[in-house]
Design brief:
heterodimer, A: alpha+beta, Phenol Hydroxylase P2 Protein, three-stranded antiparallel sheet, 7 strands, 43% strand, B: mainly alpha, 13 helices
Chain lengths: 89, 332
């Protein structure tokens, strides 16, 4: 069993499409709602894809925009123009 | 001693408005676009019929021949509500303001060949009247249209058109040294110059279309689909050999806007055509009529500006428009 990785996002209108995108791209992810925060955990790996978020917000989403909603995370990050991947390496 | 702060989680009784929860079949947090758009249209308990058209209710889906089981399938891919619309346009406006400043500082308008400058006055300044016409038409769609997805986006589109007319006015004032002479001449050209009369005729005829969905197809698909790529695309490409970089910078808003607006126009036409074969027939018929009018309207302007290159430029533009209509499901 792989160790869990996690990301915590603010529970805001801006983060809503990111959370939706994570849920649909990562079927193993478990979402916990906390007061004003949303914690998402998954075994081994979490992927946040630019295309999935862009589709939901109706404009081109820059992967760096995730910084505006992110509170914390655990795992190693691999970030490029198209996706933001959290995993243990 | 360590202090543990305990968080108490309060589950909200509902995640969104009831009408939004009913529409999506679940009580989940909704986006602002969804909350500001879906099922906002007033549908019942109208007291008085309009005295100028007593055969209709004040909001009446039968004002168009297009039939829809649900008027909320026209999702705007840009998801514009007041907030997102303003943010998007404010950043576009900032760019153009910078361009105006740069054009002014470097004297880019003075570098344009004198002969071509006259052409710019001939083709670009009168376009403010075309944009004003497009503003009128989109306000009409907002007024008589049905379903907030169409009417609110049409209101945004109408404001864009007014904004573009103002950019053209601002360019006119920059050209004539703030005397307003270029704008006066532009109006005279729009009303009197022979090469503008077919366009003016088409625009004025579009004002008296009775069906607002036909207005939508005529203005936003057919007329814009020819005039915008011709004036801001083909004419602009031709102007590069005449040192007209300044004009390109100032009209960049129009080229950016055209791409942006088409995403919405395409989504609306595609959804209406996909609803039924009757809709498809109506839309195809309207498109055919107004594409013809747009071609007639554009030909003399293209001829005046591009001379013997006009035919090729017009063909490029029309081929693009026809390919787009094909993708939207319209038939010949």
């Amino acid at each position: 069993m792989a160790r869990n990785v996690s990301i915590v996002l603010q529970d805001t209108a801006d983060a809503l499409p990111i959370i939706e995108a994570i849920k649909s791209d990562n079927p193993d992810a478990e979402v916990q709602n906390m007061p004003s925060l949303v914690r998402i955990e998954a075994p081994g790996k979490l992927v946040i894809k630019r295309d999935s978020v862009s589709e939901r917000i109706g404009r081109d989403w820059d992967v760096q925009e995730i910084q505006l909603s992110m509170v914390t995370l655990s795992g190693n990050i691999d970030e490029d123009d198209d996706q933001f991947v959290i995993s243990w390496q | 001693m360590s202090i543990q702060i305990k968080g108490l989680s309060l589950e909200p009784r509902r995640q969104t408005y009831s009408h939004i929860a009913r529409r999506f079949g679940e009580d989940r947090p909704a986006t602002r676009y969804e909350e500001a758009t879906y099922d906002i249209q007033a549908v019942t308990n109208f007291h008085y019929r309009p005295i100028y058209a007593p055969e209709y209710e004040i909001h009446d889906p039968s004002r168009t021949a297009i039939n829809m089981a649900d008027w909320y399938v026209f999702k705007d891919p840009r998801q514009f509500y007041y907030g997102t619309y303003n943010m998007s346009r404010a950043s576009m406006n900032e760019t153009i303001d910078r361009h105006f400043k740069m054009v002014d500082e470097r004297g880019l308008l003075d570098q344009i060949d004198a002969g071509w400058m006259q052409k710019v006055r001939d083709y670009l300044i009168p376009m403010r009247h075309y944009e004003w016409g497009a503003n009128m038409n989109n306000i009409l769609i907002c007024d008589y249209g049905y379903g907030t997805q169409i009417t609110s986006a049409a209101a945004f589109c109408a404001m864009d058109r007014l904004g573009m007319a103002q950019y053209i006015s601002r360019l006119g004032l920059a050209i004539d040294g703030n005397t307003g002479e270029a704008l006066e001449q532009g109006r005279t050209d729009w009303v009197e110059a022979p090469y503008w009369q077919a366009t003016r005729h088409a625009v004025e005829d579009s004002f008296v279309i009775q069906d607002w969905f036909e207005t939508f197809v005529a203005q936003n698909l057919a007329l814009d689909g020819v005039m915008h790529p011709l004036v801001f695309g083909e004419f602009d490409a031709a102007s590069q050999s005449h040192n007209a970089m300044g004009i390109t910078l100032i009209t960049q808003f129009m080229t950016d806007w055209f791409k942006d607006n088409n995403r919405w126009v395409d989504a609306v036409v595609k959804a209406a055509a996909a609803e039924s074969s009757d809709n498809k027939k109506l839309l195809s018929g309207w498109f055919k009529t107004w594409r013809g009018r747009a071609e007639e309207a554009a030909a003399p302007v293209a001829g005046h500006v591009l001379g013997d290159q006009a035919g090729a430029a017009l063909k490029t533009v029309l081929d693009q428009l026809d390919a787009r209509a094909g993708q939207l499901g319209l038939e010949d």
